[in-house]
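Supplementary Note 3. Input sequence used for the single-chain structure prediction.
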Amino acid sequence: MKVLLINPAYPFEEWPTPPFGLMSLAGYLKGKGIEVRIEDYIVTPYNRERIQRVLNEYAPDMVGATGVTMNINTSLRVLNNYKKENPDIITVMGGPHVTFDADNILKKNGYVDFIVRREGELTSVELLESLSSNSSFNSIAGISYRKNGKVLHNEDRPLIEDINILPYPARDLAPLSKYRALEFPINMVTSRGCPYECIFCVGRKMMGRKVRYFDVDRVVDEFEMLSTMGFKQINIVDDLFTSNKNRCIAICDEIIKRGISHPWTAFARVNTVSKRLLEKMKEAGCLMLCFGIESGNQEILNTIKKKTTIEEIQKAMNLCIEVGMGAMGSYILGLPGESHETVKKTLEFAAGLNPVYGFHILAPFPGTEIRDRNKEYEIRILTDDWDKYDANQAVSETPYMSHEEIDRIVNEFNSDIEQHISNIEKKKDQNNSLSKEDMDFIEGRESFRFSKDLILMEVVERYPGLNNGADTDEIMDDFILFVEKNINFTREEVRHRLTKLFSRNCLKIEGTEGKTEIRWA
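The predicted structure, written as discrete structure tokens, is reproduced below.
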């Protein structure tokens, strides 16, 4: 069977990366001889005409869509439109939201045929085999579906014991050149699972409490491959990369031994780092660790089962400063017990601890303990409008702090950042001198805006090209004029930014069907 995998639209402001989960699933399906295509609607404009074109060109038997809570409605709309265009197509959903909201999704959305819960690789292959042979679904662990109008949930599938059976993600199926153009990083994982049980997170329930590791050589082989693909940064997005210090050091030693020089980042907990580990990670090219600190109040940390202390947080940050490692502190406002006093304390704690930090607002996602036991935690959930679950606006509140107050505080914090950016831009417009850091920021911002317009307006795809025989200078001059007419940049800016995109292998010149054209690489 032919499978089409859908990555639904997601705000650029959230810094999306190539669709790792879909690429991982696609790699496994391809290894089983199944034909797969990925439609990435983050960097490919979505409309009904495109659906019709994809169905006519590719003619998939199954369409599978993923989605986190904040874009699950978008994912559902896309899947519904595919079903409307071809009522016979099999529709499947996967990912954390539908895993823990399977009953509601199937009851409310008749166009969804199956839900694959938790890890999708083995389950998806069994489902495809069953559909191909027209056999019963009763024995397929890990799926939810309807039968005779009733929603059924088969038993959970055991998690994959040895994840080394999984191939590399099929990154060749994703539009990587567009992500390179936007200067977004590329992701990889070295493990699955998290041993901790924070009440606001579904990681442990989704991927298990036991951490399952990829072999060190396999990890560094993949890292080395990614380092050659033109991305400025590799993000290691394990739930907890530093869960095993000795293994982390072994990975770093192998990176150093091979002479791989490429910037990377990872997620860590403050109680899982040491000076020796941080020094080794820095030597191996790690630019920054992101720490989920969550709160500057110990009572709140205890309530959310973070299992960290204020002292451990301070020690970890001091160690990062000591070894010269970048550190990002991430906080959540609106947790159980949150009040004016605790927010003030957290704001002061964050500002005094580390210059790089940011805030999200609690979003009680399906599957989290805080949602399942919200009354016990004295959390009032205000809405099930999933579009609002972006962690940037309050969808819940505590008895001691209203959602309006939480929104106001975060908006003020964000307004200060926006004002800082505005001041930098005013300095530039007035030809005042800027620091190298500010100059780099402005350049990156303008580069992002240019590439975003180029992608969302499909300028490259709409360029008609020139008749064959045109040399490189001719096609470039013609393309620059075309781009200038379509997006709001001067000719000099267009030339500068296009030259950068070609040099970074984002765009290429290609001769096809009697024409010389510009294509995404």
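The CA atoms of residues 447 and 496 lie 10 Å apart. Residues 2-153 form a domain with the Rossmann fold fold (CATH 3.40.50.280).
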